[in-house]
Design brief:
The protein is an alpha/beta fold and 227 residues long. It is 48% helix and 14% strand. The protein has a single domain, classed as P-loop containing nucleotide triphosphate hydrolases (Rossmann fold, 3-Layer(aba) Sandwich). A six-stranded parallel beta sheet has the order 3-2-4-1-5-6, with helices on both faces. The protein is globular. The structure holds adenosine-5'-diphosphate (ADP) and magnesium ion.
Length: 227
């Protein structure tokens, strides 16, 4: 039922990776999942195409390259037929992004813990707030730490997180950690579940992290839908 958009005007923020990992995790937990790939880079759609070429099924449905004019209809259609709809958005602010926000139960904003990226994440938040103002209602969102250092938190990271807390911006309790597995899923056209310990290092940490991130997102979307 819920539609979850993944947005941040900054390219390389980790939107596609987060959307994909969530889709895999939600599907693994038994939910029916549809991914609308509105990223011009079409990484998730490409992943799906490779699967088809190799005769391997995909655990979730992929809707590739939606037109701006059909996005709202697609979101409405798939939120009716599926348990979760994930929308991987393009880097730039656009009408496509605005429409996705207007139809989303939750917007996730992944960002890297660097000062420049944190500032760009703040722009993404401003974009959501602008859209919310135009709509005349709140658009629930969470900032999500991306490519997080699993072992240590640097002083810079602490400072950025401190600033987010001070600004009272909602931050997802769990971030997506930096892991080779999150790159190998695309390299091997695989899910986290399908990757093998022999070829991908730190796989069990990635799987545990993906599970925890998905739990936190489900909790956030439930909180917002109940409100
Ligand atoms: N958690 C992560 N661990 C390892 N690599 C990551 C992670 N998140 C993103 N990346 C890598 O960073 C790059 C940008 O990520 P991507 O998800 O494509 O960002 P966006 O969709 O915001 O442009 C890609 O090369 C991707 O493989
Ligand atoms: Mg992307």
């Amino acid at each position: 039922m819920p539609a979850i958009s993944v947005a941040n005007p900054k390219g390389g923020a980790g939107k596609t990776t987060l959307a994909f990992v969530l889709a895999c995790e939600l599907a693994r937990s038994g939910a029916s999942v549809a991914v609308i790939d509105a990223d011009p880079n079409a990484i998730i759609a490409g992943w799906g195409r490779k699967r088809v070429e190799q005769g391997r099924a995909s655990p979730f449905e992929i809707i590739a390259g939606p037109k701006e004019s059909e996005l709202v209809r697609l979101i409405d259609q798939y939120t009716t037929s599926h348990d979760f709809v994930l929308i991987d958005l393009e880097g730039t602010a656009s009408r496509m992004t605005s429409r996705a926000f207007a139809r989303s139960h939750l917007v996730l904003i992944p960002f890297n813990l660097s000062p420049i990226d944190a500032e760009l994440a703040a722009n993404a938040v401003a974009l959501i707030q602008e859209e919310a103002e135009a709509l005349g209602r709140q658009i629930p969102f969470r900032l999500v730490r991306s490519r997080d250092n699993a072992a240590i938190q640097t002083k810079t990271a602490k400072r950025i997180i401190g600033a987010i807390e001070e600004a009272e911006l909602p931050l997802l309790s769990v971030g997506l950690v930096e892991r080779a597995a999150y790159r190998d899923i695309f390299d091997f056209a695989a899910t986290l579940e399908e990757l093998e310990e022999g070829t991908t290092s730190g796989l069990s940490t990635a799987r545990k992290n993906a599970y925890e991130v998905a739990r936190a997102v489900i909790e956030a979307v439930q909180t917002e839908m109940a409100a």
